[in-house]
């Protein structure tokens, strides 16, 4: 059975390259993500390979997205996006 993990991937505020991510955008991502419509995959880099045993293959699939309020720390009160990631079985081998 594939292993799943949860990761926080985005928090409202400014990105490193100067774009603003709003609460509304994060909530929309959480509400509308559907892996049956468009499945987000995690890759090693922006390069994709046609070969399944390549370093540049898919390593995981995002199963779901959820918005939550950060409870403590420097981002307290901000809305964050948490995703459930299904790791490819081969990655753990």
UniProtKB/TrEMBL annotation:
Highest taxon in the source lineage: Bacteria
Protein name as it appears in the record: Phage capsid scaffolding protein (GPO) serine peptidase
């Amino acid at each position: 059975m594939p292993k799943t993990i949860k990761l926080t991937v985005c928090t409202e505020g400014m990105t490193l390259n100067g774009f603003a991510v709003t609460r509304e955008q994060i909530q929309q991502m959480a509400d509308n993500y559907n892996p049956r419509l468009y499945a987000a995959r995690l890759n090693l880099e922006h390069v994709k390979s046609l070969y399944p045993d390549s370093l540049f293959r898919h390593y995981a699939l995002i199963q779901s997205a959820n918005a939550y309020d950060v409870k403590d720390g420097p981002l307290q009160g901000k809305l964050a996006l948490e995703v459930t990631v299904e790791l490819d079985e081969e990655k753990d081998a």
